[in-house]
UniProtKB/TrEMBL annotation:
InterPro entries: 4Fe4S_Fe-S-bd, FDH_Electron_Transfer_Unit. This is Oxidoreductase. Residues 7-36 form the 4Fe-4S ferredoxin-type domain. It is found in: Cell envelope. It comes from Gordonibacter faecis. Keywords: 4Fe-4S, Iron, Iron-sulfur, Metal-binding, Repeat. It comes from the Bacteria.
Length: 120
């Protein structure tokens, strides 16, 4: 299985606006109840760091409900959270490709699901 690829999400949370489009599209597609999410926006801050700097971020956090929209991605489509991300802060792909895209100039989170990992 040396040719297997592991897939994930690369989230540039410096550009996330907290619009919740990822949450809503996931919840609707997977018929999740109002208190459960496949991906959940978490707010960090706001608080003063020093000088003119403040910490104020929105971080999309995939939950254990997330399987990267396996039924979509096996057909070559994007996960719904990526498709509906209005700030284009999320990318789907093989972990090797996603890690290569981390440039060190903004804040990234790489998500790889524990269960339901997609392989090709």
């Amino acid at each position: 299985m040396a040719n297997d690829k592991v897939f994930g999400l690369l989230i540039n949370y410096e550009f996330c606006t907290g619009c919740h489009s990822c949450e809503v599209s996931c919840q609707m597609e997977h018929n999740l109840p109002p208190d459960r999410w496949g991906i959940k926006i978490q707010k960090v801050g706001p608080w003063h760091i020093g000088g003119d700097d403040y910490q104020y971020d929105f971080v999309p956090v995939p939950t254990d409900q997330c399987n990267l929209c396996g039924e979509r991605t096996t057909k070559g489509k994007k996960p719904l959270c990526v498709k509906h991300c209005q700030s284009l802060a999320m990318r789907f792909g093989s972990v090797d490709e996603l890690v290569h895209d981390i440039d060190g100039t903004t804040k990234y989170v790489l998500f790889v699901p524990k269960a339901g990992t997609l392989r090709s």
